[in-house]
Design goal:
Blueprint: H1 2-23, H2 27-59, E1 60-63, E2 67-73, E3 79-83, E4 87-90, E5 95-101, E6 105-109, E7 118-120, E8 123-126, E9 129-134, E10 140-153, H3 158-165, H4 168-186, H5 193-197, H6 201-216, E11 221-232, H7 235-296, H8 299-315, E12 319-322, E13 328-331
Parallel strand pairs: 6-8
Antiparallel strand pairs: 1-4, 2-3, 2-5, 6-10, 7-8, 9-10, 10-11, 12-13
Helix pairs in contact: 1-2, 3-4, 4-6
Length: 335
């Protein structure tokens, strides 16, 4: 706009110079005014071209995927419109854009840095968070945690966010970060030191995520993940926790050994029962067979077997003598 204004002024100077050159009475004055007019016209044309180019590029806009723009009046900064779909076009020279990043943003708090948190759009990089956790022997104890949270911003509340905070960075600093720090310091108090660093860490992470979504949902904020990467206690607490963890590990090992012994005993019992059952079944089978054999030895069958034995013995020169009591006596003497 400034370049275009200067172009108009330069063109007016040029035109006036050429007009005044025609009215000049002396040749020298006429030449000077004519030269001034020509320079003014050339300068005006160049400034008009430059100003037109700047005006074109300042009015042209492109909105990509994952972006949203609040269109505001350049004079009073009031909201004119909102653009949240991928598109391109031209805007009024009297309007401006306030951009919002809709892609996933990360809040990271880790390490012992002493500098203030840094902000980039909706992302934050700050130092570790100090919290109070249930103590080893009751009470509470201090802990430093490293935490990473990921969230995204919806489009339905962009205008409201601009109206209250004027930019995404200010909204992240004054609302998102403060809520995260507040909730992250409240939740650990519900757990003991052992639970918070161990088996219930995932439960604490989910509790923080749910509370953040509940408080910031009215701004279209949705936290997709909260991860507690590390939990550090004072040295005396660490020593006590190490003793407790070792005791728990020993108890778990003893329980595992007990279960292994029980399994082995049950296995040996099953094997023994199997062998015993097999022996009983074999004995029962043999007894049943003997019973069947005994039942099949009728007097007629016995008599037939005696005759068969007499025939077989006579073939070898032996004699079968009937003792008269139902038994047979083999005699090898010749008669």
């Amino acid at each position: 706009m400034i370049a275009l204004g200067l172009a108009v002024i330069a063109l007016l100077v040029g035109v006036l110079g050429l007009v005044s050159a025609k009215r000049a009475q002396y040749d020298d004055a006429r030449d000077v005014r004519r030269a001034t007019g020509r320079v003014g016209i050339v300068a005006g044309i160049l400034l008009a071209i430059i100003g037109g180019g700047f005006l074109f590029f300042s009015m042209f806009f492109q909105n990509s995927v994952g972006e949203a723009k609040v269109v505001v009046n350049t004079i009073d900064r009031s909201i004119v419109d909102q653009i949240d779909q991928p598109t391109s076009g031209f805007k009024s020279p009297f309007s401006d854009f306030v951009e919002f990043d809709l892609f996933s943003q990360q809040l990271q708090f880790a390490g012992h840095g002493h500098e203030a948190p840094s902000y980039t759009g909706g992302s934050v990089n700050g130092k570790e968070i100090t919290v109070n956790v249930g103590g080893v022997n009751g009470g509470s104890t201090r802990a430093d945690i490293d935490l990473i949270a990921t969230y995204s911003l919806g489009t339905e509340k962009i205008k409201d966010i601009y109206s209250q905070f004027r930019s995404q960075e200010r909204f992240t600093e004054q609302m998102v970060q403060k809520q995260l720090l507040s909730i992250a310091r409240q939740v650990p108090a519900n757990y003991t030191a052992v639970e918070f660093r161990g088996q219930k860490r995932g439960e604490a992470e989910e509790a923080i995520r749910s509370a953040l979504n509940e408080r910031l949902g009215e701004y279209g904020v949705e936290f997709t993940s909260v991860t507690i990467q590390d939990v550090r206690y004072p040295p005396n607490v660490e020593k006590a926790l190490t003793a407790i963890e070792e005791a728990n590990q020993n108890a778990q090992k003893a329980e595992a050994d007990k279960r292994t012994a029980q399994v082995n005993a049950e296995k040996a019992l099953i094997v023994a029962q199997g062998k015993s059952a097999a022996q009983i079944a074999a004995a029962q089978g043999e007894a049943e067979a003997n019973k069947l054999i005994a039942a099949s030895l009728t007097p007629e069958v016995i008599q037939i077997r005696k005759l068969d034995a007499l025939v077989e013995a006579s073939k070898g020169g032996n004699y079968i003598i009937d003792n008269g009591d139902g038994s047979l006596l083999l005699d090898g003497r010749k008669r």
